[in-house]
Amino acid sequence: MKHYIGLCLLLLVLATNQVVAQEKFITLSGKITDAGSHQPVIYANIQLKSGSIGTVANTAGDFIFKVAEKFWQDTLLISCIGYKTVTLPLPSASLQDMDIQLEPSVYLLPAVSVNVRDGFGLLRKMISSIPANYDTADVRLTAFYRENIRLMADTINFNESVLDIYKTYHTGRDHKDQIHIIKGRKKKVDWSKDPQLYGWISNITNTAYSSLNEDLQKYLDAKNNILNERNFRYYTCDYKETIREGDHNLLVLTLQPKDDSRKALVQAKIYIDEATMALVRCELKTTPAGNDYLNRHQKGGIGYTIMSKIVKATIDFTNISLVITYKQYGNKTYLSTVQRHWDWVVNSKKRGMKDVPWTGDFYLLVTDMTKDSLQRFATGISNDKASMNNEVGNNYDPSFWENYNILLPELQDSVKPKKDAARPAGKVTHVSNRQNGFTRADTLRGALSPLRSCYDVSFYHLDVDLNMETRSIAGSNQIRFKVVAPFNRMQIDLYANMHIQKILYEDQPLSFIREEDAVFVSFPATLSAGSEETITVYYDGIPQVPDFKIPMHGGILWDKDEKGNPWVQVVCQGSGASLWWPNKDHLSDEPDSMRISITIPNGFTEISNGRLQRKTPAGSDKTRYEWLVTYPINNYNATFCIGKYTNFKDTYVSGHDTLTLDYYVMPYNVERARTMFAQVKPMLACYEQHFGKYPFPRDGFTLLEGLYPMEHQSSVCIGKIKAGMQLDYTPLLWHESAHEWWGNAISCKDIADMWIHEAFATYAESLMMECSDGKDAGVAYLNAQKDGVKNREPVVGVYNVNHIHYDIGDMYTKGSLLLNTFRFVLNNDTQWFTLLKDIQQHFRYQTLSSDDLVNYISLRTGKDYTWFFDQYLKYTHIPKLEISLKEKGNNLQLTYRWLADVSGFKMPVKVTLAPERFGFIYPTTQWQTITLKQMREDDFEVDEDHFYIQVTEV
Ligand SMILES: [Zn+2]
């Protein structure tokens, strides 16, 4: 005779594949939710009333259940602790997307005497009943086992197996549990990025065995077992309630650490069958003391110490949660499931990893039990010291689980993906400055070729003379660089219209050839890696002037002030710095510092970046201004502004730090400027509060009136101050100043990701509104940005070609709105503003890509948000919430889903769950329905103020 315990998911596991293939099945799938809260009911049981097969829903409430022909007359039971069991006749054919709602079960307390409500009393009674309830005979189990280990959002180990287990009550060396793997598979995971680290932190040993070791009733005397009565003194134990599971009453006890006891390693919830006093379920979670204990004792002793030294990384437990369940068969109970969730943080200075979240899920599910012809396994026993990852073999058979009823893993490819409402990935057209496609010139300008990546610029000294009559410049740029890889040829950049006189290296001229705007410089011998070298490029020419009809078509702007005096400024974001000076014109490489010397006619003031070092006469009628930037600076930020300026100064005191403020304006605008600049200190305070300290304190903060607003680093230009301007409300000033954090302190690697500069700076404007006038003002400010969004092409552009969009506006407005939406997706302002500061801190003085940023956000929040950023950044559509509303009596039935380009788009969004009360719903690309109590259609609203989405009723 072969006995099956309740959850016999793998009934067919011992049959051959051929037999399985001939069987007919109906397949049921769907979602189980709480009828009241509409949240998924996790790990609900789906089983047949008389047949012995079943399955369990996953953490999203999803299930798949295959029923063989011989059970087709049976009845479906869906049950979960705390809910009324739902009974359904089996449908006559396969049925997908079933929507099953469980009603919470209400249970009236039975008339039990007060003394048994004493928690420890009940617990002791359960323990004393173990010999009667728990079978101590040897048994043979079939079990399903899964490991899923992730580092941040990446899966680093995923394996599944069907196990044959010889389980015994004995613990002696020669008579202990044995495991034999019937069938296993593992996902191919790429460890090549960091084989040592990944190998170490993903190969967890012993886990199938150690799952068996969690059998609380078998190891009753174990030192740390909470059922070991010696440990009771560290805890308080309370009877909480009685709940219903199917036909049984369960007593629920809670075990809590007593007075912060250092010995209380866990807190627990214990479920006991009231009739038999059998242990049914135990939920455990480590306390801080428990985590400390694990970190001191359970990380693998000397083995851990050695590995952490070799790999140069440490791991620390931050949480372990554990759910152990028992099932009854006949009049005995047996271990049924062991579900473990581990959280670690990984730290490695070498890798720049700080508290990187690692999560592991280990799931053992017993599906079949027998006591017949019991024999210990003689061969094929799995090594109890090895990792399952190594034990299951190297295949990942996609049809591995066909015809088995298993937990749906939260992995796309373990079960055939369901159809979702993803739009067919439409072709995205980029309307760009290169409507006829990109050319070799664009690649030369935009790609980080080996001729560019072979060196890393450490310093520029730009030293030029500006002839304001001929509008020409002449001079040199000294380029100091570190050799990253040996080379004898490098690329620098200077627009083709500019003339190169010579390029010197160790006082010798170098040969060079020019193609489009690139300059290929040859060295007489190979430069060796690691060395630091200097070349100086001597050049002259008349730089181009901007064409404002073409976005980001920059140049040198020539104008006159109100008194008719010449006024000159560089504007080159987009077109690039190489339109006026020779450099490595790729955003990924910033010099660590830069000296800028500009010689101009006497009588004018010249303002560049950083601090003015000296002003020296150059001949009789000229002055040489010398500025020093002591931080990395991106090329398009290096600038000059020349005019008949006047200067006044102030200081901004923040904590122990004093920041110098330098203001340059036209003399006729001094009074206006004083009024306008009164906002600077509150603005800096607002930004420091949300983004962290001002990033360039050594260089000071200079703000100047100029011809065109530009975020020139530490020399921010706000355009012209004009009569009639509102002087106490200047979003332009806020925007350009915010670039000191977003664009200057952290800069994108490729102009395709320029949204990192513009979206955050535009969003900062709304934060400044919020700082000065409150949250509602900030929201109103953001909502006004919606009109500007065109949604004609994606926010992120084409990489490696210096792609400048025609519709550059979306990276500002849509970018800002997506950031605001993300703030409300997080729904936690502390987390949001900490995240902004962390981004600043982490990437300070560096260049980054969108991917770097999104990965970092996922890391810091502990959740993968790629789906969110992909939808807003890479597609033109914003997510569309499709809803339908039906009044049913006094209630409103709401059906909803996302229509999005990203499959699996799952943004939570707020709607009115009750009249004038917003709360979250969790739409996916699948339809869902909820009932809103006491609501009419008129009461229903979607929170479009905080979520930038489209809403349509269908
Ligand atoms: Zn900007």
UniProtKB/TrEMBL annotation:
Gene Ontology CC annotations of this record: cytoplasm; extracellular space; membrane
CDD domains: M1_APN_like
Presence of keyword Signal: yes
Name of the protein in its database record: Carboxypeptidase-like protein
InterPro entries: Aminopeptidase_N-like_N_sf (IPR042097), CarboxyPept-like_regulatory (IPR008969), Peptidase_M1_aminopeptidases (IPR050344), Peptidase_M1_dom (IPR014782), Peptidase_M4/M1_CTD_sf (IPR027268)
GO biological process terms, semicolon-separated: peptide catabolic process
Gene3D superfamilies referenced in this protein's UniProt entry, alphabetically: Neutral Protease Domain 2 (1.10.390.10), tricorn interacting facor f3 domain (2.60.40.1730)
Residues of the signal peptide: 1-21
Protein's UniProt keywords contain Protease: yes
One Pfam entry name: Peptidase_M1
Organism: Chitinophaga ginsengisoli
Annotated ranges, domain Peptidase M1 membrane alanine aminopeptidase: 731-872
Keyword annotations of the record: Carboxypeptidase, Hydrolase, Protease, Signal
One GO MF term: peptide binding
Organismal lineage: Bacteria, Pseudomonadati, Bacteroidota, Chitinophagia, Chitinophagales
